[in-house]
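Morning F.,

Quick status update on the modeling queue. The single chain you submitted on Monday has been processed. Sequence for confirmation:
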Amino acid sequence: MTDDRAGSPAIETIELTKRFGDKPAVDRLSLRTPVGTTLGFIGPNGAGKTTTIKMLMGMLRPDAGAARIMGADVLADSAQMKQRVGYVPEMHFIYRWMRVRDVIGFCRGVYRRWDDRRCSELLKLFQLESNKRVKQLSKGMLAKLSLVLALSHEPEVLILDEPTSGLDPLIREEFLDGVLRVLCEGEKTVLFSSHTLSDVQRIADHVALIYEGRLLAHGATDDLVAGTKRIRAVLPDGSTPGEPPEGTIWQRVERREWLLTVHGFSADTLEYLRDKYSVENVEVGDLALEDVFKDFVKGRRASA
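Structure tokens below.
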């Protein structure tokens, strides 16, 4: 293991900022992703996910802050960084007139660590025919080819920007199986941006949620889901809630029913509600990652 792998996070942003006109697309984003982590990078449309990824890939220059991959500054050490990163964008920029074997031959000459055996295994796994032209490939097969190209040079970091967007469920499953297979074979760091949160919950051990370019939540996926609960309580007649319990990310009151979503839920949360508001018929429910995501966003929109 090299020194930078041992001592630095695999992906790091420090007060990373990008504006388009007067509006910040990414606003002082600081995020550290340890080596070997699979990070689900989630947020609503326009949250700044793709802008962040383009800055990580050196495709956009930040207005402020810095970004590093495996300890290398993504702008100052761009050539070195790109040798160590596999990238699958939502839009696949591959020459449509080329055949699959020609695309592979071109990429083989670009990357120092190209592995023909790995490439052949992935082509077989995804049933990609080497003599087919890119323009003959379906969107799903094109996504698979992009993944083959991203993985065949044995990258230390894999960045996936909405790679399964618009794919049918079967192709999406096959794509994710390919990612999971690679993850099981070695210690790779993956940043996976997706709107399909069931996919994120399946493969990501950590999650970062951003909204309007700012980080709302970041932590282990299981801890985020297990520690966030939906509470349904009935208020006494004539009572209205005031200050919600600590960690409340969203709430709604309809007549006597008080619904709350609390991040960092504990027994103290229920004790607070009973002591302060004498609530009745309290029910606590679990949430999936998608529900946690929705309530973080709804709460932030309501507060704005």
